[in-house]
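Treating backbone geometry as a discrete language has practical consequences that deserve illustration. The sequence in question and its structure tokens are set out directly beneath this paragraph.
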Amino acid sequence: MKTIAVLHCGGGNKVKDRFIYNGPKTCAAANLVMGGQKECVYGCLGFGDCAKACPFGAITMGDDELPKIDENKCTACGKCVAVCPKKLFSLNPVDKPYYTNCMSLDFGKDVLSVCSVGCIACRKCEKSCPYKAIEIKNNLAVFDYTKCNNAGDCLKVCPTKAIQKR
């Protein structure tokens, strides 16, 4: 089964910084200082270690301070998965385009206090899926791609747009 790299964070510049970080402009270095400068301690730090690590040029940094993956260039080598200090990348099946664009394990109220597009564990996606392919685990919508049939009902009901389609 062919896979592709997927970033599980939609925050980027939508998430405020909680302090001014003046260290080396790498995710790895920033993460060493209190888990990084972002108010969401689970989210992307935006320094592009993943883009630098990608040997195929499949990842570039967007204006929103988030990595963008070029699906035509991605070979699913896993370098981005390995280099991200927040573990925000996974290799997902190409034929399963839906995914959770968040990795926060916080309760919904706390998620919304720092990020408008995070998963709030409202269970609407879980309840709407006719294939029972989504389950809320540790306050996060988790896909079971062996059950997912790409119905897309989850995308339609997500109030924060934390469920996305590639």
User: Anything to note?
Assistant: The longest strand covers residues 3-7.
